[in-house]
Design a protein that fits this description.
binds NADP nicotinamide-adenine-dinucleotide phosphate, 246 residues, Rossmann fold, alpha/beta
Length: 246
């Protein structure tokens, strides 16, 4: 019977879903390694909940390598959460910088971090990789081509992991949230608080804690049980672009 403290790595841990996940996993007994670009925020969280704050920019291979080098194995849980959307322009007017950044963080970043932590994941006798996708990984909407294409790609990465790792003691779960009120829309609309608020106007969105609780539940299941995909939406949202507003 193993008695060591289990280890979890959370990317994009400085706000929203990532920060809530740090709290939930720390309270569930994990030692959490927190990664993101805003180190002061990570340090605050690490102080509050325990854990280790490390700088991480998933768009930079060097940064990912330095991050992974500071994390001892085994790693039992990797939550690939860093990412988000930039802009909402029509496809024929797409902004190359936005799209490149979104692919860098949501898609390549996820692959980079997983590759870098592969040795530590293999040292665990029962590891779980959780990829944060989105309902944007199965549907799309006007103005959403860049972001939805990225999250469709995340779906492909999750399924490929499951195929390539079949027979190893590693579970792969993709969690696909609908609208969650975090800094997501503020980032998407370049700090425009009014535009960000409109996204959740007149409806009740999910909270970051709702997704963190789902992550905690997935991890609590017996190790032979793999939840492939969880789609979690607010009651007020029927499709990615179909929301009731009162
Ligand atoms: P958020 O509050 O904006 O958090 C995004 C996190 O990602 C931040 O901690 C940010 O940290 C980090 N991040 C962004 N780029 C990064 C980079 N290059 N390197 C390292 N970290 C980076 O938004 P959120 O809603 O919690 O988003 C978390 C995940 O959920 C994203 O993958 C998002 O696509 C997905 N999601 C969100 C929703 C929603 O409605 N909110 C719905 C479905 C899926 P730093 O800026 O400090 O680096």
């Amino acid at each position: 019977m193993e008695t060591r403290q289990k280890t979890a790595v959370v990317t994009g841990a400085s706000s929203g879903i990532g920060a809530a996940t740090v709290q939930h996993l720390s309270e569930a007994g994990y030692h959490v390694f927190l990664g993101a670009r805003r180190l002061e925020r990570l340090e605050e969280l690490a102080q509050r909940y325990g854990g280790t704050a490390l700088p991480l920019d998933v768009t930079q291979s060097d940064s990912v390598a330095a991050f992974a080098a500071q994390i001892p194995g085994p790693v039992d849980v990797l939550v690939n959460n860093a990412g988000g959307a930039l802009g909402k322009e029509a496809l024929v007017e797409f902004d190359e910088e936005h799209w490149l950044q979104m692919y860098q963080s949501n898609v390549l970043g996820l692959a980079r971090v997983t590759r870098a932590l592969w040795p530590q994941l293999q040292q665990s006798s029962a590891a779980t990789v959780i990829n944060i996708g989105s309902v944007a990984g199965e549907e799309t909407y006007p103005g959403g081509a860049g972001y939805t294409a990225c999250k469709h790609a995340v779906r492909a990465l999750s399924e490929t992991m499951r195929l390539e790792w079949l027979g190893r003691p590693i579970r792969v779960t993709e969690i696909d949230p609908g609208l969650v009120e975090t800094e997501f829309s503020l980032v998407r609309f370049a700090g425009d608080a009014k535009a960000a608020k409109t996204v959740y106007a007149g409806m009740t969105p999910l909270r970051a804690e709702d997704i963190a609780e789902a992550i905690r539940w997935v991890l609590s299941l017996p190790e032979h049980v793999n939840i492939d995909r969880l789609v979690i939406k607010p009651r007020d949202q029927a499709r990615v672009d179909k929301v009731v507003r009162r």
